[in-house]
């Protein structure tokens, strides 16, 4: 398995989510971005109208911001769709 192949990663994630979770369910996303209000706003916009609880915290030196998003999702496909949307934000790291 190629660790840089996003299709393989998402297929494995989908299988894990189907096996381990009863849907619909709350899901916790965690991201790290370079501290930038525009990037933060982009991520917030992706989760608009979802009822998500979004928390952000700057790193000790302020260079990075961690963002936690807790949101009710209907299934693995919805979870993966949001990961793909967020991956378009420049510099984002999904945990």
From TrEMBL:
It comes from the Bacteria. Pfam families: DUF493. Gene3D superfamilies: 3.30.70.260. InterPro entries: UPF0250_YbeD-like, YbeD-like_sf. This is DUF493 domain-containing protein. It comes from Croceivirga thetidis.
């Amino acid at each position: 398995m190629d660790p840089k192949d996003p299709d393989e990663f998402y297929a494995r994630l989908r299988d894990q989510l189907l096996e381990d979770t009863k849907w619909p369910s709350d899901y916790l996303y965690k991201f790290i971005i370079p501290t930038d209000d525009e990037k933060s706003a982009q991520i917030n916009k992706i989760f608009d109208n979802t009822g998500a609880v979004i928390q952000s915290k700057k790193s000790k030196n302020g260079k990075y911001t961690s963002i936690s998003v807790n949101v009710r999702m209907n299934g693995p496909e919805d979870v993966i769709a949001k990961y793909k949307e967020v991956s378009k934000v420049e510099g984002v790291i999904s945990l």
